[in-house]
């Protein structure tokens, strides 16, 4: 659970403790949602608009609508090829558009964000704002991009420029900003207001987004029952929502220590949803269960999938940890971590880089990076755990002790295996 300073108040400790002790999931709540229902990756709507696209087509509306369908297919299946096809359609739309070019630039920028091509997304966002006289939609996009890039002062300025507590778009971004600052109470407060807006609108997409995201925050706060119930609310609307099923699997694994059931849930998801990081989660659960064969199998599957160069930087963070855990190719890990820092100079990226130097036994360099770019700039337990390991290697045991106290309540978010790791600091 994140944001440990906040969670240390007496009221919250008691609340979280009661929540933790009293709550249990039941497979009867979600079992019906685990049946395989493959998504259709075509539709009459897609066929209609796609048929209008020819080699030399200038059917602008067709490109935009086809891209929307590809985005929907990607969301439903996790299949990266649909994200790339949406990129192709949107790139063509940006190229030929004379009307609403700003909107197509924003759409392509969001596609780039999904691919972790953040600098390219920023270029498109800046192009869009130059056309649209600083529209609120583009300023909202610029907040999102600068948050991803670690340009937090610029992000805050754009957040201030769209301030309107009555609007869903502002509320979810205000929640994200307070999440970054480590203020979990305020984050949840903003998300609950956004959720109320979604419920009033009865917009299914907004409801799914609100329920699944607030479920995450409730989990961070130790409110496991609330988290679970909102994942179920998500599934009641979108029966095949992989994100919600993954969230329930995490509760079952991390809170209840039931690896077998968590794997059953994930196996059902992966029949119809393909995303490389799910293999790593299954490997983590298998490791906790001391199932070496299953761990290696899922690592091999991840390695095979991620070898596709088209993924670009999308899985850089996962790849660094994967290389460090499974190989001694430190220079390869260093190259990827350095690229990630260049792509997005966030505390997360710098933590990856410090972790590589730690593994290379360049403890002083790792310490320099942690002190300059991680400590005091993040409240993420995983990053604090990495920092503690760096401090331990540099014999700065007082700092280790401080972080260790902060991590005492972080085991749910970090996973059950972290308990032993934290104890050994």
What is the strand and helix layout of this fold?
Blueprint: H1 4-7, H2 10-22, H3 27-30, H4 44-50, H5 60-77, H6 80-96, H7 101-114, H8 118-131, H9 136-149, H10 152-161, H11 168-181, H12 184-201, H13 204-220, H14 224-237, H15 242-255, H16 259-269, H17 276-288, H18 292-306, H19 316-326, H20 330-343, H21 347-359, H22 363-373, H23 381-393, H24 397-406, H25 411-414, H26 418-423
Helix pairs in contact: 4-5, 5-6, 6-7, 7-8, 7-9, 8-9, 9-10, 9-11, 11-12, 12-13, 13-14, 13-15, 14-15, 15-16, 16-17, 17-18, 19-20, 19-21, 20-21, 21-22, 21-23, 22-23, 23-24
Q: Nutshell version of this structure?
A:
The protein has about 425 residues and is mostly helical. Helix content is about 75%, strand content about 0%.
Describe the structure.
The protein has 425 residues and is mainly α. It is built from 26 helices and no strands. It has helices spanning 4-7, 10-22, 27-30, 44-50, 60-77, 80-96, 101-114, 118-131, 136-149, 152-161, 168-181, 184-201, 204-220, 224-237, 242-255, 259-269, 276-288, 292-306, 316-326, 330-343, 347-359, 363-373, 381-393, 397-406, 411-414, 418-423. α4 (44-50) runs antiparallel to α5 (60-77), α20 (330-343) packs antiparallel against α21 (347-359) and α21 packs parallel to α23. The model is unreliable at 1-18 and 47-57 (pLDDT under 50).
């Amino acid at each position: 659970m994140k944001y440990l300073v906040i969670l240390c108040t007496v009221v919250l400790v008691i609340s979280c403790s009661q929540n933790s002790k009293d709550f249990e999931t039941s497979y009867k709540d979600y079992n019906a949602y685990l049946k395989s229902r493959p998504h259709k990756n075509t539709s009459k709507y897609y066929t209609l608009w796609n048929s209008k696209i020819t080699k030399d087509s200038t059917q602008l509306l067709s490109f935009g609508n086809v891209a929307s369908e590809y985005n929907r297919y990607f969301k439903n299946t996790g299949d990266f090829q649909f994200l790339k096809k949406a990129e192709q359609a949107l790139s063509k739309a940006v190229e030929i558009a004379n009307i609403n070019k700003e909107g197509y630039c924003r759409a392509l920028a969001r596609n780039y964000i999904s691919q972790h091509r953040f600098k390219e997304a920023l270029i498109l966002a800046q192009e869009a704002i130059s056309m649209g006289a600083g529209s609120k939609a583009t300023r909202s996009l610029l907040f999102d991009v600068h948050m991803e890039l670690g340009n937090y002062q610029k992000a805050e300025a754009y957040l201030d420029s769209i301030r309107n507590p009555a609007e869903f778009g502002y509320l979810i971004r205000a929640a994200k900003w307070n999440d970054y600052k480590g203020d979990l109470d305020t984050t949840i407060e903003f998300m609950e207001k956004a959720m109320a807006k979604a419920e009033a609108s009865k917009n299914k997409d907004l409801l799914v987004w609100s329920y699944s995201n607030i479920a995450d925050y409730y989990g961070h706060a130790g409110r496991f029952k609330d988290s679970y119930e909102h994942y179920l609310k998500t599934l009641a609307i979108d029966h095949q929502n992989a994100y919600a099923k993954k969230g329930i699997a995490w509760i079952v694994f991390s809170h209840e220590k039931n690896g077998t059931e968590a794997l059953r849930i994930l196996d059902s998801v992966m029949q119809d949803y393909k995303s490389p990081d799910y293999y790593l989660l299954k490997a983590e659960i298998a490791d906790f269960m001391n199932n070496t064969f299953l761990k290696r199998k899922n690592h091999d599957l991840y390695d095979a999938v991620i070898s596709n160069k088209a993924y670009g930087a999308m899985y850089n963070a996962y790849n660094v940890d994967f290389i460090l855990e499974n190989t001694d190719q430190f220079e390869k890990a260093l190259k990827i971590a350095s690229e990630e820092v260049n792509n997005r100079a966030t505390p997360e990226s710098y933590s990856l880089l410090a972790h590589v130097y730690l593994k290379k036994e360049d403890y002083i360099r790792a310490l320099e990076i942690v002190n300059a770019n991680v400590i005091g700039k993040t409240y993420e337990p995983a990053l604090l755990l990495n920092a503690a390991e760096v401090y331990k290697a540099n014999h700065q045991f007082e700092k280790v002790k401080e972080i260790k106290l902060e991590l005492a309540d972080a085991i749910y978010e970090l996973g059950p295996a972290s308990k032993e790791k934290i104890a050994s600091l």
